[in-house]
Amino acid sequence: MAPSGPMTKHERMIKLTVLLLTLLLSAVQVPALSLAFPDGTHQTPEGRATYTPHAFISVVSDQTLRDAASANSWPGDGTEGDPYIIEGYSIDGNGSEGTCISIEGVTLHLTVRGNLVYSAAHGITVAVSRNVTVEGNEVRDCTWRGIAVWWCQVGPVEVRDNTVSNTSGRSDWPLPAGILVEKSKDVVVAGNRLVDNFVHSAGPSVLVDASDTVTVASNDVHATGPRATVSVVDSLGVTLANNTLDGRGSRYRGGRTRCSSA
């Protein structure tokens, strides 16, 4: 092959442009994207946790808990040392008036943890049950209550280390709250973070109503609505301890209300 002659000015410009583009592309950092996996799980944009999309969960007895645990391969056997665990789900309420995770009539040991639930009337409810722990969940954009414990008159029930945000509350629904404890006994509400609840409506971030022996401790409550951050109504034996209240503080009312601060 005959040797080629010197490059023309136009050819030199093309070669230089290609070289510059190659250097620029090699320096570009492509941002990480949210991951979608073949089994239907997905990763949060922040990359903090992986959730599996799931329909509403409703447990109405010990037997339905056993059946659901078997069908969904939930770990545990319901004993104190090895509780059943509902974990790692993303449940979208799609603006319905339902409950993302509803626990009722349970005496077996159960932990509901590490779930993302949102856009329903209730995020997580525990009713007429004992030995239930609700911990480390993210509950947001609910229209009535984020987490509710009611008619659990034997206990214990624990609500720990959850994040509840943007509960809106409807004026025609009673007892709206970020976290509600109603007609229950031996309940602990501790280490939760509540923020931006009831910005445009009336409702406390934490409400204890007609209950006995309830501890509200070490919660981080940022209330922007018109009412108190923590409200205790017609209740006895309520202990408030080490809560961070950025709002209107605590309020007690009703003939049976008796609180202590530790």
Summarize the structure.
The protein is mainly beta and 262 residues long. The chain is built from 2 helices and 25 strands.
Number of domain units: 1
Biggest sheet strand line-up? 1-2-5-8-11-14-17-20-23
Q: Profile the largest sheet.
A: 9 strands, mixed
Identify low-pLDDT runs. 25-47
Q: What's the total helix number?
A: 2
Calculate the terminal CA-CA distance, rounded to whole Å: 93 Å
What is the CATH architecture term?
3 Solenoid
Which secondary-structure class do the elements indicate? mainly beta
Q: Any idea what the shape is?
A: globular
Fraction of residues in helices?
Answer: 10-25%
- Output the CATH class name: Mainly Beta
Which fold name is given in CATH as the topology? Answer: Pectate Lyase C-like
In terms of DSSP E residues, the strand content is 35-45%
The rounded Rg comes to 26 Å
Average pLDDT number: 83
Number of separate strands: 25
Summarize the helix and strand pattern as letters.
HEEEHEEEEEEEEEEEEEEEEEEEEEE
Task: Summarize the structure in words.
- The chain is mostly beta strands and 262 residues long.
- It has one domain: Pectate Lyase C-like (3 Solenoid).
- It is built from two helices and 25 strands.
- The chain has helices at 9-27, 62-72; strands spanning 42-43, 50-53, 57-59, 84-87, 89-92, 99-104, 110-113, 116-118, 122-127, 132-135, 138-140, 145-150, 157-160, 163-165, 177-182, 185-190, 193-197, 206-209, 212-217, 220-223, 230-233, 236-241, 244-246, 250-253, 259-261.
- It has a nine-stranded mixed beta sheet with strand order 1-2-5-8-11-14-17-20-23, with no helix packed on it. An eight-stranded parallel beta sheet has the order 3-6-9-12-15-18-21-24. It has an eight-stranded parallel beta sheet with strand order 4-7-10-13-16-19-22-25, with no helix packed on it.
- Strand 1 (42-43) and strand 2 form a beta hairpin.
- The longest helix is centred in the N-terminal third of the chain and has 19 residues, at 9-27.
- The chain is globular, with a radius of gyration of 26 Å.
- The termini are far apart.
- Mean pLDDT is 83; it is low at 25-47.
